[in-house]
């Protein structure tokens, strides 16, 4: 019996349906002012760095539809606005059934948050779990044009 004659193992041709990029819910994102207008104390020093992380980022593989679990870290220097965390959670959860490669998901999160916040700078790092002995860590960076060196 050759490999071609061997019956397929059950389930190896299985594929789960995936959603397209239009399922990413950017409209749910909300912001609040970086500085409270009613606070008489001006904040001294350098811009505050904000770091947000979650182990619950899980888009799906565009080939199989199986979940890709990753740790997502968002690191940014706000200009005028901060992202509201509950809205961010809903936004990230909207990736749950979206078929997207690790690299594209990382850049998409960066693009959506830069558009929303207009930060001084932002870095998105996504560390996806091991799959088949391979670990993927993607990092995408943004620096506002008025913040770039020379």
From TrEMBL:
One of its GO terms (molecular function) is preQ1 synthase activity. It is found in: Cytoplasm. GO terms for cellular component: cytoplasm. The active site is at residues 61, 68. GO terms for biological process: tRNA queuosine(34) biosynthetic process. Substrate binds at residues 83-85, 102-103. Its EC number is 1.7.1.13. Keywords: Cytoplasm, NADP, Oxidoreductase, Queuosine biosynthesis. Transmembrane segments: none annotated. Belongs to the GTP cyclohydrolase I family. QueF type 1 subfamily. HAMAP family: QueF_type1. Catalyzes the NADPH-dependent reduction of 7-cyano-7-deazaguanine (preQ0) to 7-aminomethyl-7-deazaguanine (preQ1). This is NADPH-dependent 7-cyano-7-deazaguanine reductase. The gene is queF.
